[in-house]
Amino acid sequence: MALLSLYLYVSSNTMLEDKDLKIENLESEVRILQDSVQNLQLQVFDMQYFSLENNDDALSYYDHLGVDSPWRYISDKLLETNEQKGDNPLVPYEGMESDFKINKIKILNHQWIIADFSDGKYWGELLVKYELKDDLAVDFTMMDHLLYTRSN
């Protein structure tokens, strides 16, 4: 009986030490993951800095219009410029593989947009100035552009 008790005592101590080590490892992993999440949150906050959606000063320009999500409304209006036949009128290049169309949009504030365009093979970016008018019409003016060169 004493031998069995000694075996159970040693075995349970080994199991307890093993469990404690696993718990310490898991706690260490949790700390690392929490740090990673915190770093990612800081990166997201940095990326959102230039964004109409999070810019109360810029959004105040649209309070009188009664538009729930001005950034969504303006994005939709910009994407509507893709609907006409041929290249998007804001893109100052002729598509080489197909028509150049705007793909991604980042509304920086109440005046500027950066947009990505592509014809499926070639791509570039636009800096667009816009004005959302009281009648909810939106005027877009391309301010600058670039077309990336392909290196094959």
Structure description:
By secondary structure, this protein is an alpha+beta fold. It has two domains: 1-48; 52-147, no CATH class. The chain has three helices and four strands; from the N terminus they run H-H-H-E-E-E-E. It has helices at 2-48, 56-59, 70-80; strands spanning 101-107, 112-118, 123-132, 138-147. It has a four-stranded antiparallel β-sheet, covered by helices on one side. A hairpin with a 5-residue loop joins strand 3 (123-132) and strand 4. The model has no long low-confidence stretch (mean pLDDT 91).
Strand content: 15-25%
- Total discrete domains: 2
Structural class: alpha+beta
Query: So how many helices?
Result: 3
Low-confidence stretches: none
User: In which order are the strands of the major sheet placed?
Assistant: 1-2-3-4
Order of SSEs, N→C?
HHHEEEE
Q: Let me know the number of strands.
A: 4
Radius of gyration, CA atoms, in whole angstroms: 28 Å
Basic shape:
elongated
Q: Give the termini distance in whole angstroms.
A: 79 Å
Largest sheet: 4 strands, antiparallel
What's the helical proportion of residues?
40-55%
Give the oligomeric state of the chains in this entry, treating copies of one chain as homo and distinct chains as hetero: single chain
Mean pLDDT: 91
Supply the key terms.
152 residues; alpha+beta; 22% strand
